[in-house]
Fold this protein.
Amino acid sequence: MNIYKLVLKDILRRKKRVLYAALGVIIGTMTVVGILTVAAAGQARIINQLEKYGPNLTVLPAVSNLNVTLGDLSLGAISIGDNYIDEGRLPEIRVITDGKIREALKIEDQGNIATIAPKLYVNAAVNGTNVLVVGILPQEEKLLRTWWNVEQGIYISGTNDILAGASASELLGLKSGDDISVGNATFKVTGILETTGSNDDYQLFASLSTLQQATGKEGKVSSIDIRALCNACPVEIIADALNGAIPGLRAVAVKQVAATEMGMLERINRLMYALAGITLAIGAFGVMNTMMTSVHERIKDIGIMRAVGSSQRQIIAMFLEEAVIVGLIGGIFGYVGGSLLSYAIGPLIFEGTAVSWVLGYFPVSLAVAVVVAMLATSYPAYRATRIRVADSFRAL
Amino acid sequence: MLEIKNVSKIYGKGESQVAALSDVSFTVDKGSFLAVMGPSGSGKSTLLNIIGGLDQLTSGEVKLNSERIDNLTENEMVTLRRGKVAYVFQQYHLLPSLTALENVLLPLAFNRRADIARAKEMLRRVGLEKRANHKPAQLSGGEQQRVAIARALVSDPELILADEPTGNMDQKTGQEILKLFEELNAEGRSIVMVTHAPEIAQHARETLFLKDGQLVEIVKNSSA
């Protein structure tokens, strides 16, 4: 028998008291784990949304409208500048964009980082109806529009393949396998996109170079979408750099709704952490209270132990051992309870978000619970060592 | 071996001061069996607690084997309790969650030399080997006191301090416990026993009389 076994025996005799102490820790850790899990789910959802927002930057030709007036008489507006961007600018744009990202993220990698997707918009009559045909680089565009799903057929692979938006295919009566002509080229519809709820539904998508040749717009693109692969990328800085370095184009940082949402989440998280902290503190107070009662109830036992040769350190060690057990019980049940709690309330906070168990929070939960229980026990344990043997016997 | 010199103990402060012991001096030789007698409130238990370091004195000195033990540090006190001095109480003071054997083992456990064989031997010594796995609540008063004595013996003390060890039991059981003390004394252990009953004090070799915290006399007992 050693003193640790002695503590275990004593705990078994006072199961209720120990569980009561553990309850304080359970509630505290449950809140912490619940909040962490819900926050993680929210974060994942927002990052997911960020990806769906597509490009972080759009580069357009620098076209400006000038109002022409004669005295008070308005003569309308005239556009100044080219309506297209020269494809030859693409390498330059890549160098600037990747350079800024490398600077911001402090990475050395020399490969391509950002996804750069040039497009050419062409108005064409298909089956007698005017429709917007978009020339794209199929691979780049796919990276950008992660939400695209081909409903019928397959995604563009060949030079004369064309992909139809859901509404466009309906309006034009297009099916997978149909042939259509745009400009002086003939395309084959290889696939129909699922409804996206955006303008994409009304457009046709073809290979950029084929469309350029078919419409006599070789080397020209209408706009370029750029997506940096990170959420922390400095899109405004990249836009400024592009505008400063390359004349004739206008780079615009796409307003990041998701980023604002992220900021909101950050604030909510901070509030919830504060709440978790308070709950933990209350739990700790409960543990301290119970332990204090426990010390009081065991004044005589402590006196006996002191009389038969226990040192003050051994008394403290015994109480801390009890605290560790209380903490472990609290940590285990707190983790399970917190996970269940977040599973229940997560979807209420972030509609439709599936909350998953985060196993990584289990050690966190155990550590938090044990530390809190030990801190809360330290004062009662100290008080226990102050008990004088003669007084302890007189008290009862 | 034990030297008590001008020991006083005052409880309280100012006008509410009560002197539990005033200027008590005596010596106890090695191998003695001293009974401390006196009416209740005469300071007998206080004296015993001070000798054993369970309580602090207000003035004076307590020496064990010529070394002062009234001003020991916490750690020195722990060492003393693990070795030379052991207590036996009127209320037995066993830990209720532990079996008889574990209670006897307790001092060894705190001293990190848990020797079950030795603990069993001590239980046999007090005639309770068959009760080793019983909890205190399952034992009679006399049996509990035997466990307490076995616990006191397990660390092989030179001096046993007993506070009314038979105070809670009938005469027959009390006689058996006292016989046990006589045997321990015969082995060469010194015993200081507090009692308020003359017939119990008769079992000791000497009797010290206290009254109102003052030493009245020390008498050699004829029958012992």
